Amino acid sequence: MDIRFEQAEARFEGRTVVHPLTLSLRERRIGVIGLNGSGKTTFARMINGLVLPAEGHVTVNGLDTVKDGDKVRGQTGFIFQNPQNQIILPILKEDIALGLKSQKLSKPDTAAAVEAVLARFGIAHLGERRAHELSGGELQLAALASVLVTRPDILIMDEPTNQLDLRNRDLVERTIHRLDENVVVISHDLGLIADFDRVLCFHEGRLAYDGAPAEVIARYRELAA
Ligand SMILES: Nc1ncnc2c1ncn2[C@@H]1O[C@H](COP(=O)(O)OP(=O)(O)OP(=O)(O)O)[C@@H](O)[C@H]1O
Domain spanning 3-224 has what CATH number? Predict the structure, then answer.
């Protein structure tokens, strides 16, 4: 993966939320931390073009998020803070199959891909269930399955363990640790990103610290104190 920010700035209603940022991300697992409102979600949304830079450029694997937004979104799967908003069709299997529609697979190939991704996350038994009946942890796994079935190069997750009880949090954490994909994970759960390859800490819309997890987490603790 190759994510580049070149003096990229995000503004909402004239207010700068991410100050001009120049950055290159190539590590496989990247954690993003910082206080509430520091700009983490906006930064993550800039990667897949959900937020476009008011100034500067963002590229993903050489594709510009402004000029090639659709292609960028084809390569970056995004898991939102509330996974219930991610599942559109009531039956989980149908929802996952919907994600594959643009690939124009045959019916049996679509069904096989859906079964494979459900099995990968240990939720084959949930395929026929209605999304609104799933628990928080099951929903997170279902959201992961619905995004990863399209085989994105980069997976972005916004607070994937938020609102989960201890058991579901552990389940989702273990699942994230086993993923082979490139991941960018925003989290207030510092344990989740403690062994990642690189951690970014945002503060008041600026990248305040950037480096190895232990060092950046220590700085974040000082900042939050
Ligand atoms: N669509 C929007 N319109 C206006 N302001 C926005 C919008 N999205 C975010 N903001 C503002 O931008 C700032 C940064 O928000 P952002 O969601 O990126 O922070 P965050 O670090 O992810 O916060 P949290 O940890 O609370 O989720 C906040 O002041 C927020 O109110």
Answer: 3.40.50.300
